[in-house]
Design brief:
Helix content is 50%, strand content 12%. The longest helix has 25 residues, at 415-439. A seven-stranded parallel sheet has the order 3-2-1-4-5-7-11, with helices on both faces. It has a two-stranded parallel sheet with strand order 6-15. It has a two-stranded parallel sheet with strand order 8-10. The chain has helices spanning 5-10, 23-35, 51-63, 69-75, 77-87, 105-114, 131-150, 193-209, 214-232, 237-252, 283-292, 312-326, 350-363, 385-395, 397-409, 415-439, 448-459, 475-490, and strands at residues 14-18, 41-46, 88-92, 117-120, 157-161, 171-174, 258-263, 265-267, 299-300, 309-311, 337-340, 366-367, 373-374, 381-382, 442-445. Helix 7 links the parallel strand 4 and strand 5 (157-161). It contains 18 helices and 15 strands. Helix 2 (23-35) crosses helix 12 and helix 13 (350-363) crosses helix 18. The protein is an alpha/beta fold.
């Protein structure tokens, strides 16, 4: 089916992708080159000082990854290099700046004349990012993409990759609906984005006057982000700034066709280009790492809480499906927000993850640097922060205090043991606070629009090429035989 409408639609098209060195963008670039090598051009925005540096980053951080092994084997290394040389154009720039700070006017003019499709996947995904950085990338960066698009003569569609968790800590079924500029989740305040920018500006001036270290400034700006997010009803800086980005895009888009893709917790590839590819520590992987290494021995979530996971290749397939569907006149363009999720169609529960972790690391124990096997036990499942904090207070703080005293009385004899335990406790508390909104989430994501998109792909006979239906996933098999082994191999 790869000779069907996905090829017909993408053939001869010029596509611009931001955040090109990110996890999703890499899968997207690989997929496009594999299913439609006759794309006209792929412009990739790469954060770099000049074109030479951008190309270097592209080859080192994208082309040399294991992700491209299938395509390399399919057409040969020489042909792949020729294809990339002909079709792919890394562009040095930064989404935080207007026109992305592209200095080469010739390249910029070519982009304005040629680009037909824009995919904005650039983002900082740290939940506790510095507020100024998150604002520049997730909010102002999105606006810069829109401004750039308005100068492109042939642009047909902008796809903006957001997150389903712009809803905050919602309950019940979360609809696929857009934000109104200025609305907040707590309904008790008005969100003025210009005021938020002024808050950042004033805080930076205040910190500069105090002559703080860069580390102290970073901590203060991270705290500010959490404070402002909480004020307006969001659990962290990431979801807050992504929501603001959506608001401004919807408010300023005018006649441009805008599609917003809202994935949930993104995990390793399900099938394409091969199962289990992942890069960087994602949400659930922090717990996998900590548990497997014996640092963490607990899980979060009510036993029936849904952990909404979706493989990265399914997210990429949904992006391409949206481009194809909205590029065809027969498809209604009203439904432009898509939850790419699993909680409605194929729910995964906290207790499932708990069992999968225990069984996997019992059968495949971690070997530490001393060559010793790390034994794991069935992790307790905490359904609230209170129960978790009680657990820490009962079992760990007293032991830490005893070790601290023994260390003091024995001239630091237990210093290593004390520091290891403190590190474990600090990591557990930090992860619990960061990931609570996702692992103790009591809602599920409506995917009516997404189901219509899947049906559109079925009508085009390309649902196999662009599969993003979570109902096909057998979670135990996926985690035990795909995600956990992939994460252990490629991240840890």
């Amino acid at each position: 089916m790869e000779s069907s409408k996905i090829q017909q639609f993408l053939e001869g098209k010029t596509i611009f992708i931001t955040g090109a060195t990110g996890f999703l963008a890499k899968i997207l670039v690989e997929k496009i080159l594999r299913v439609q090598p006759n794309v006209k051009k792929l412009y990739l925005l790469v954060r770099a000082s000049d074109t030479k540096s951008a190309k270097k980053r592209f080859y080192e951080e994208i082309m040399q990854t294991e992700l491209f092994k299938v395509l390399r084997e399919k057409i040969g290394a020489k042909n792949l290099n020729s294809l990339v040389e002909e079709k792919v154009f890394p562009v040095a720039g930064d989404i935080s700046f207007e026109d992305f700070g592209i200095e080469n006017s010739e390249i910029k003019d070519e982009m304005f004349k040629e680009i037909e499709i824009i995919i904005n996947s650039a983002a900082t995904t740290r939940f506790d990012e510095r507020y100024d950085i998150a604002m520049n990338i997730n909010v102002l960066g999105a606006v810069n993409v829109l401004k750039f698009a308005k100068r492109c003569e042939k642009v047909k569609i902008i796809v903006h990759v957001s997150t389903a968790y712009v809803c905050g800590e919602g309950e019940g079924v979360i609809p696929e609906k857009s934000f109104i500029l200025g609305e907040t989740l707590n309904k008790n305040s008005y969100l003025d984005i210009d005021v938020e920018r002024k808050v950042i500006e004033d805080k930076l001036k205040e910190l500069e006057a105090q002559k703080l270290t860069s580390k102290e400034v970073t901590i203060a700006m991270k705290d500010l982000g959490i404070q402002r997010a909480t004020l307006h009803g969001w659990p962290n800086t990431y979801s807050f700034t992504k929501a603001m980005g959506e608001m401004l895009l919807g408010h300023l888009k005018e006649n441009l066709q805008l599609v917003i893709i809202r994935p949930t917790i993104i995990t390793s590839t399900y099938k394409e280009p091969f199962p289990g590819w992942i890069e960087g520590v994602k949400t659930v992987d922090s717990f996998i790492l900590g548990y497997g290494k014996g640092i963490l021995n607990f899980c979060f979530g009510d036993p029936n809480t849904k952990i909404d996971a979706i493989p990265g290749d399914m997210v990429v397939n949904s992006i391409l499906a949206a481009i194809i569907a909205h590029g065809n006149q027969y498809y209604s363009s009203q439904e432009s927000i898509y939850h790419i999720s699993s909680s409605e169609k194929n729910p995964l529960k906290s207790c499932d993850i708990q069992l999968f972790l225990f069984h996997y690391f019992t059968k495949n124990p971690w070997i530490n640097k001393d060559g010793n096997i790390i034994k794991v036990g069935m992790p307790p499942l905490f359904s609230s922060m209170d129960s978790f904090q009680n657990y820490i207070s009962t079992y760990y703080w007293p032991l830490l205090k005893i070790l601290e005293l023994a260390n003091l009385l024995s001239w630091q004899r237990f210093d290593k043991t004390y520091k290891n335990l403190k590190r474990k406790i600090d990591m557990a508390i930090r992860l619990a606070e960061l990931y609570k909104p996702y692992l103790l989430f009591h809602g599920s994501f409506d995917d009516v629009n997404t189901e219509r998109l899947r049906m559109a792909m079925k009508d085009c006979n390309i649902e196999d090429v662009l599969s993003f239906d979570p109902r096909c996933i057998k979670w135990e098999d996926y985690f035990m035989n795909t995600h956990f082994p992939g994460a252990v191999k490629r991240i840890f």
